[in-house]
């Protein structure tokens, strides 16, 4: 349990770590944003394909993989349809910074729930190395998300302090959902495989719906593609390191 808490905490607080560059620079080039997002996409695809999905089959079978993966995709699709993700550009229609910040905070709270569940399910798996591996993958995704959040808020005339606080709050929600996922899987061992498949589906949806389009929308498709491959390979090496 202590390991799961530590892993989920580090993964969640990676959002705060992503805000740190904004303490020194106020703008983020499109090239670096695209490269970072693509690298994250590679990490998440690798973790899903080589970690979560094989272990889901091992623990609960191919049917559990199918049902859990589809459930993860459908839930993320539902969230995306009703609560759009933030973008670096300002959105029209808001005149009050506090109202805008509150809506962004709520959106990220809801977006982080499936990610936290993914970490919790992974730590409850029979494969002890899966939890740290998924925590690294989710944490890698949280870092550019925190950076994009900070840029969004600074463009909306928020302070750097507010950006840090909001990043920490969204990370806290991810920790809570990770604990819920861990206890659910620990006391109901027959759902672990479904939970791992759910995590894979959620991560793959994020990659294809958000990360890849974000990394290919500003004319830097080629460096983003290489960055994706390097991210995938990095996660393979991490997987081997955890055994």
UniProtKB/TrEMBL annotation:
Report the Pfam families cross-referenced here.
Zip (PF02535)
Q: Which UniProt keywords apply?
A: Cell membrane, Membrane, Transmembrane, Transmembrane helix, Zinc
Superkingdom of this protein's organism:
Bacteria
InterPro entries, sorted: ZIP (IPR003689)
Q: In which broad location class does this protein mainly occur, judging by the first location in its UniProt entry? A: membrane
Q: How does it sit in the membrane?
A: Multi-pass membrane protein
Q: Where in the cell is it found?
A: Cell membrane
Q: Where are the transmembrane segments?
A: 6-24, 36-56, 62-80, 101-124, 130-154, 163-185, 191-212, 224-242
> What protein family is recorded?
Belongs to the ZIP transporter (TC 2.A.5) family.
Q: What is this protein called?
A: Dihydroorotate dehydrogenase
Q: Which organism is it from?
A: Paenibacillus helianthi
